[in-house]
Amino acid sequence: MRVVFSSFVESDLDAIAHYIAQDNPTRAVTFLAEIRAKLRAVATHPLLYRLRPEIGEDTRVALAGRYVILFRIVDETVRIERVVYGARDLLALFDPE
Questions:
Q1: Domain map (residue ranges) of the chain
Q2: Within 10 Å of residue 91's Cβ, how many Cβ atoms?
Q3: What is the pLDDT of residues 29-53, one digit of tens each?
Q4: DSSP per residue over 32-88, as a string?
Q5: What is the CATH number of domain 2-93?
Q6: What is the arrangement of strands in the sheet containing 67-74, beginning at the earlier edge strand?
Q7: Distance between CA atoms of 27 and 16, rounded to whole angstroms?
């Protein structure tokens, strides 16, 4: 499937990298690589991930460590909406464009 990213994703990834890099710059780089690998896995098999309609219509969630990838399947496209810390208020953060 084709993958598209909302305008939030790059800033989400930058914020994650910045936060982790404060304590461990090397780990920030490797963790972002892990998240990007998970994004590729989501694109390959998006239906494997659980629906979370309480967050948003047709929203699915994939885990990447303590972070979550919020995405939707729209026609033949996987739309990645956000990548955020899992303990945050996901309902308040989810604002698909």
A1: 2-93
A2: 11
A3: 999 999 999 999 999 999 999 999 8
A4: HHHHHHHHHHHHH-GGGSEE-TTTSTTEEEEEETTEEEEEEEETTEEEEEEEEETTS
A5: 3.30.2310.20
A6: 2-5, 77-85, 67-74, 59-64, 50-51
A7: 11
